[in-house]
Amino acid sequence: MANSKFEYVKDFEQPDILLPNTWIVVRIDGRGFHKLSDHYAFVKPNDRRALDLMNAAAVEVMKELPDLCIAYGISDEFSFVFHPTCQLFERRNGKLVTTIVSTFTAHYIYLWSIYFPNKPLQPPYLPSFDGRAVIYPSTRILRDYMSWRQVDCHINNLYNTTFWTMVQQGGMSNTDAEQELKGTVSADKNEILFKRFGINYNNEEEIYKKGSVLYRQYKLQEPKSAQASMEDDTSAPEEKQSRSQQDKLKKLRRKAQVVVDHIDIIRDDFWERRPWILS
Ligand code: ATP
Ligand code: ATP
Ligand code: MG
Ligand code: MG
Ligand code: MG
Ligand code: MG
Ligand code: MG
């Protein structure tokens, strides 16, 4: 654009570049999904279609943004992780967050009718998401962040599963169930489920207990003891080197299949067997 006397307004823009050499996590969360899930009659406590839709939208985000290393989703939220070397949008906070949020939302809405064919979207109940970026200075802390989200998934799911079983199968009112669960620990909830309803929480579906982790699939690493299964014949990217090497890596990342897994990401095993995710 040509210079004009109005150009000085550009100087009011504040820089928002995220600290170099740190992990960037963009976490998005559905706005008012409690209400939205009521309106479209999501199954309680876990609507499988809604989770599959979240995952499908997140897979598209991973495909559009090869800089993303991994993503983790539970309920109406998703965390997307950029590597410390990421230079996308010069690491500008606003650009990264808004691009993730709008790309995710666009795909979520585009794919909605596949997962909810009999429930067309209706204003004012249109899905939207907020988002924020947080930086983490070490891989250890990034891993603790991921663990924090998975622990949250477990705690919420155990509570919700027990609560809704007491209501749906036990015929209790919401308030009574809530009252009884006040101050209980995990063992108490497991016992209520098992003794009163014959439900072994361990047998609940992994997607509900563990959430969903998305990453690019290459050849699995031999685990320390048991044998690894070879799931794909693309080989994992090696150490980072020259420019052309980096371009090659980028191509590899673009080509690699994005998989959706429901698996423990707190212990080391997941990361040791897939060293390319954080390298
Ligand atoms: P906010 O706008 O502050 O995020 P919210 O209503 O979205 O408010 P959250 O804490 O994000 O509140 O919780 C999301 C809610 O959406 C859950 O408590 C649950 O009621 C509902 N929900 C999300 N995903 C599912 C699902 N797959 N199945 C059933 N309910 C779901
Ligand atoms: P970036 O991702 O960096 O924003 P961009 O391609 O979107 O890249 P912009 O500077 O945002 O670049 O410019 C938007 C471009 O989109 C315009 O230059 C024009 O080519 C096109 N465009 C947008 N709106 C219209 C329109 N209504 N009619 C024709 N072209 C349009
Ligand atoms: Mg423009
Ligand atoms: Mg929120
Ligand atoms: Mg929400
Ligand atoms: Mg939420
Ligand atoms: Mg533009």
Automatic annotation (TrEMBL):
Catalytic activity: a 5'-end ribonucleotide-tRNA(His) + GTP + ATP + H2O = a 5'-end phospho-guanosine-ribonucleotide-tRNA(His) + AMP + 2 diphosphate + H(+)
N-terminal signal peptide: none
Entry's cofactor comment: Binds 2 magnesium ions per subunit.
Bias kind Basic and acidic residues: ranges: 237-249
Highest taxon, organism lineage: Eukaryota
One Gene Ontology molecular-function label: tRNA guanylyltransferase activity
Residue sites binding Mg(2+) 2 per the record: D29, D76
Residues in tRNAHis guanylyltransferase catalytic domain copies: 6-137
Domain Thg1 C-terminal: 141-267
Region (Disordered) location: 225-251
Cofactor(s) named in the record: Mg(2+)
The EC number(s) this enzyme carries: 2.7.7.79
Binding site for Mg(2+) 1: D29, G30, D76
Keyword check for NAD: no
Record flagged with keyword Magnesium: yes
One GO-annotated biological process of the protein: tRNA modification
Pfam families per record: Thg1 (PF04446), Thg1C (PF14413)
Its job: Adds a GMP to the 5'-end of tRNA(His) after transcription and RNase P cleavage.
Family that this chain belongs to: Belongs to the tRNA(His) guanylyltransferase family.
Name assigned to this protein: tRNA(His) guanylyltransferase
Source species taxonomy: Eukaryota, Fungi, Dikarya, Ascomycota, Pezizomycotina
